[in-house]
Protein 1
Amino acid sequence: MNRHPAVYGLGRTYAAHAAEMGAAPEPVVFVMPWTALVPGGGEIPWPAGSELVHHEVELVLHLGEGGRNLDRAAAEAAIAEVTVGVDLTARDVQARAREKGHPWARAKGFPGACPLGPPVPAGPFRGRWGEIDLRLEIDGTVRQRGRVAEMRPDPPGIVALLSRWFELLPGDVVFTGTPAGVGPVRPGERLVASSRALGVRLECSLLPPAP
Ligand code: ZN
């Protein structure tokens, strides 16, 4: 069997978002199938079994190296590229899963759940991750605005933490969690995720549910 990269998602890495979800600011990790990724965004099918999809704008890391038990320096060096992404979440499916203590896989990993922008080299941001800004607009109105400075752990800390629990591989993609301001997305609304520091912009929209 070949080994394949994975898509990791972090939750509750921004205290203000954890609070708006009624949760403690303690990082949680979930894993998504590769088919959740949509490089470049575009039109995304509505997730089956959901009536409530939320947007979560996030910094996304692309790993150039893998490994286990990476120290902070190795974890930082492993981050090859970065971009913005949207962790689309079937919030009603997630709420039902949370109630029952079930995994979040269906809420987070549906096909197209993770549109992401064009990756840019991470080198210039090493040692100054906090300066990266995140922004999400829907039909021209700003809904989320955040800075990586508010994120705990920071990107190298997240990769180091993941490498204690998983064997990381080159090509792994990490969604690092969302700042406050998440909310519903309706079919046809135009989402624009961007970061001025990264010089990256991503557009996507959800198609209406299948009849
Ligand atoms: Zn998220």
Protein 2
Amino acid sequence: MQKTKLSHIIEIPIIKDEGFLCFAEENKHIPFPIKRFYYILDVDDGAIRGKHAHKETQQVLFCLRGSIKILLDNGSEKEEVFLDKPNQGIFLDKMMWHDMIDFKKDTLLLIIASDIYREEDYIRDYDNFISLIKTL
Ligand code: TYD
């Protein structure tokens, strides 16, 4: 585990054989029971995704191909994390505002989540996020 200013990078095993194989297990490499995964690909140049925080859901985001910049914001500090290795994921804790920027043509993101999809868990308004952070 490699600390960043606001989070940490999770490094999972990578086995080099005929090609590469990476794997991760819940509560070992991924610091929560895994309830869901989803992936994001074919995003247009210049698009910005994310732009939200989660009230409870924790996630780990891997960039399997290409590269991505993740902007983290905990309400008082910001950080930019660059990902371009398939065995390195950024931990996105609950109440961490995040934007994904600088998608490349071949960027493929895999996100592992601690909960199923619930729109009620999203905070999509930044001012609301800041207000909620102040109540913690
Ligand atoms: P969203 O999480 O806002 O995407 P991103 O963070 O990449 O910008 O989700 C985009 C849309 O997809 C939104 O309408 C909700 C839907 N969605 C699901 O139905 N289930 C899911 O597991 C996820 C992640 C999104």
Protein 3
Amino acid sequence: MQIIQYPHPTLRHVSKPLQRFDAPLRRIVDEMFELMYAAKGVGLAANQVDLPLRFFLVNLEADPAASDQQRVFINPVISRPKGQKVGEEGCLSLPGLYGDVSRNERITIHAYDLSGNEIREEVDGMLARVIQHETDHLDGVLFIDRLAPSAVPAAREAIDDFEAIHAGRSQRGELPSDEELAKRRAEWESKYC
Ligand code: NI
């Protein structure tokens, strides 16, 4: 398992809700937390490890020692958005790139945790921002799609570089074909969605 980078096609996949969460998926969650900590991230969506499954992880401390801060949000739905706030974001699928994004200041998140317990919380601050960023991932949306107009020119070169690197790897046959990736996603979906 590894974190995929823009413009890998699975980052544009819209994940369908999960119907079940079994022991193999729990192990995948553990592995995803390890990858997230190794990359010093605060959030990671399943499609960032090439899995078309509707869940994401958060640990605002970005620290495995703070395992009490680990959260898993399954089938998240955001509602009751309030206010707008601009803040800088980055993404483990676009390493090194940062830019200002406007998000709702306060939201209500409805989801399920790993034990199947319902989560319904009104959140704000950093957690509200991360939840919006990660839920976007599950809908195939990246923070570069939401950059403030003033942040676009500075990001353009980095985005072009990511695209050129991907095109080069593709041409050299170092990446699975789009058809193979779609087939793999369909297999996961038939099992879990
Ligand atoms: Ni991200």
Protein 4
Amino acid sequence: MSKHVLIVEDDTDISRLLRLELEEAGYRVSCFDTGMRGLAAIRQERPDLVILDLGLPDLSGAEIARRVRHTDPTPIVILTARDDVETKVAMLNAGADDYLAKPFHMEELLARVGVQLRKHGGGQPTRIGDLLIDALRRQVFWGEAEVRLSPREFELLQYLASQPGRVYGREEIERSVWGGDLPLASNVVDVHVANIRAKLREAGGFGVIRTVRGVGYAIKG
Ligand code: CA
């Protein structure tokens, strides 16, 4: 199931653009234009990630972050028109996981959203058919059977599962899972995929990761 991103932003041009880009990237998106509506929706809808505008007409983004943080580990990315150190510190103190100054590049926002979702695993375990990935406990199950992965195998599987059906190129995987510090023409990604496949098969999971010849890998969507 695709990850749910909830946006609280009173500038409808920005929220419309965010919605478009995030949906294009495979996320499910809902938008709210006041702090009170946003806060109520966060509690009700339990999104995987929240994007908050700092300057809202009623509650500030920082106030919302503080209230959410009280009860909820959902990752929060704040958008701000102010880029001074005091603002940054205040936002982090309020419980924001990341922040971005406006105007921002959409690619940077998407990258940061991806990082936060992977880091937090969205709180809820990810289920794709019989495959269950519990990021909080760092456990993987195929049906009832636990699949014991190494930390790197876990990260790779979690990365592929962040958008089921999407084909991830080898270089993309290297950059995201290994931070890009693999030797050139290394086959480390392929070796790790082979290991994950073998472990999944042992638990009864066949054909979970698809090879896209000449490109990379995708998890069955
Ligand atoms: Ca605003």
